[in-house]
# Entry
Amino acid sequence: MRLISGTLRSTPLPLLPVFSNIEPPALRRKAATGKLVEKIVKHDSWPIQPYILNPPLLRLTSRKPLWLDLQPVDIKRRWRHNWKSAQVVSSHLVYDPTIWQPGFDLPRQQWSLLNRFRTEQGHCGACRRKWRLTDTDLYPCGETQTMFHIVECCSLTNKTEWRLISTTLCG
# Structure
C-alpha cells in the first residue's frame, strides 16, 4: 500500500488503505473467512462441515476460531464506520474512504506530492527536523515550516499558483 499511495513512513496507518483504495487488511481477512465458511456450508460432503455447523466447545480462551463469528460482513459499510471513528490527521478531507480519492488517476509523482500535502508529511522544515535531517525548522519568512504553513499562511508562497495547482490535481 505504501508503494501505491506514494506516501512516507510516518503517514498514519488508517490513511494508507484510503490513498491506495484497498480495504484494510482486517476487513479483507474477515470477508475472505466469510466466503470460506459459505463455501463449506454449501458442500455437504466436506468433512469439515460438521465442525462449522456444530462447533466443538471452546477449550482455549486465547484462540479465536472462525465459527465464533459467522455473520457476513459488508466491507464498505464497516470501513466507513471505522473511518468515522478513527482519529487521523486531515481526515476531514476524506468523506468516503471506499471511493477513489480525487487525483487517484494522476501519474505517481503528482499523486505522491498531493498525498504528502494531504497527510502533512511532506519534505518541509518541521518534518525534516523530526527526521533529524536538519537542525532548524524555520522557513525564510521566519515561521516554522509545516505543510499547512507553506500552503495557507506563508507570504513567500504564491497563493494563486498553489490554488491553480491544487484545483488541477484535485479536479
About this structure: The chain has nine helices and no strands. The CA atoms of residues 115 and 135 lie 25 Å apart.
